[in-house]
């Protein structure tokens, strides 16, 4: 069994503050340790379930948050900036299952802790083939195009609800419940990590709970931006069309184009908006 683990940060146990999400913010280094511990819980479960190989992708921000010195030494860690497939870097059709750890709800979801889609201030809404899409749906769809099902999603309660909305009864672990965008009732990290381990182990031993998201091509990505300037700049990209003063659309028969474009859009929007992945 080959297991792919994509690890974001906003849905990691114990974290609620934007300062904990980026260097040199107060609490960021501790946040990286907690992110690594949540990842290790899933990795340990994968090997205890009999995995022959586990690949872990650092899927937050610039991709250099997971502590290489603390990650389970049995896995392969993919990290660093400008990864072509971003949150899905390292995943291919040879994997049996994907686990999404530390994920969060899409932009605008009530009580979603640190909710956003791809960028914090620049994007109001994203739709994939007409369906509201956060990072969970976007990455589950990428895995689905490769024939890979999702075996686990961990994050806040809103993220788990979003995962089940997209995938059905997929195994999920809520490590916190939002009280507002920057506040939550937390499961203390040691207990949350035990929960992640136990649910990942159960899921990987019983594939009947795995869920694959199948989206029929052609794939259309629609983005509603926060400003007309960003939309106009993004519409310069070949294949991207303006569909309104603050919205763009892109269609392709190859889903890797969708994932790759998201990274390019982030670079343009961050430059035009001068905020990058910060939170509004």
Descriptive labels:
280 residues, alpha/beta, 7-stranded mixed beta sheet, 5-stranded antiparallel beta sheet
Class by alpha and beta content? alpha/beta
> For the terminal residues, how far apart are their CA atoms?
41 Å
- Strand % is 15-25%
Low-pLDDT segments, ≥5 res: none
Radius of gyration: 17 Å
- Order of helices and strands, N to C? EHEEEEEHEHEEHEHEEH
Task: Return the average pLDDT rounded to an integer.
Answer: 95
Write the layout of secondary structure elements.
Blueprint: E1 2-7, H1 28-48, E2 53-58, E3 76-78, E4 97-103, E5 123-128, E6 131-132, H2 135-145, E7 150-156, H3 157-167, E8 172-180, E9 183-186, H4 189-205, E10 219-225, H5 228-234, E11 241-244, E12 247-252, H6 255-273
Parallel strand pairs: 1-2, 1-4, 2-3, 4-7, 7-8
Antiparallel strand pairs: 5-6, 5-10, 8-9, 10-12, 11-12
Question: What would your notes on this structure say?
Answer:
Helices cover 31% and strands 24% of the residues. It is an alpha/beta fold and 280 residues long. A seven-stranded mixed beta sheet has the order 3-2-1-4-7-8-9, with helices on both faces. The radius of gyration is 17 Å and the shape is globular. The model has no long low-confidence stretch (mean pLDDT 95).
Summarize the structure.
The protein is of the alpha/beta class and 280 residues long.
């Amino acid at each position: 069994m080959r297991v792919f683990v994509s690890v974001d940060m906003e849905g990691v146990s114990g974290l609620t503050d934007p300062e904990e999400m980026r260097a040199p913010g107060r609490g960021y280094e501790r946040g990286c340790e907690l992110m690594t511990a949540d990842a290790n819980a899933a990795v340990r479960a994968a090997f205890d379930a009999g995995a022959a190989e586990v690949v872990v992708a650092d899927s937050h921000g610039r991709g250099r948050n997971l502590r290489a010195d603390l990650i389970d030494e049995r896995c392969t860690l993919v990290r660093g900036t400008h990864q072509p497939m971003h949150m899905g870097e390292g995943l291919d059709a040879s994997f049996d299952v994907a686990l999404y750890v530390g994920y969060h709800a899409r932009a605008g979801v009530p009580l979603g802790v640190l909710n956003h889609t791809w960028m914090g201030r620049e994007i109001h809404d994203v739709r994939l083939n007409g369906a509201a899409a956060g990072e969970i749906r976007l990455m589950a769809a990428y895995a689905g195009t490769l024939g890979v099902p999702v075996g686990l999603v961990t994050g806040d309660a809103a993220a788990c609800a979003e995962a089940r909305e997209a995938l059905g009864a997929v195994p999920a672990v809520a490590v916190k419940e939002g009280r507002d965008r920057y506040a939550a009732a937390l499961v203390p990290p040691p207990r949350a990590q035990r929960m992640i381990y136990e649910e990942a182990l159960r899921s990987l031993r019983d594939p009947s709970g795995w869920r694959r998201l199948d989206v029929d091509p052609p794939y259309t990505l629609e983005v509603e931006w926060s400003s007309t300037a960003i939309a106009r700049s993004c519409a310069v990209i070949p294949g991207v069309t303006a569909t309104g003063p603050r919205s763009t659309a892109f269609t392709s028969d190859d889903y890797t184009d969708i994932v790759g474009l998201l990274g390019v859009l982030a670079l343009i929007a961050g430059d035009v908006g001068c905020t990058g992945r910060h939170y509004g």
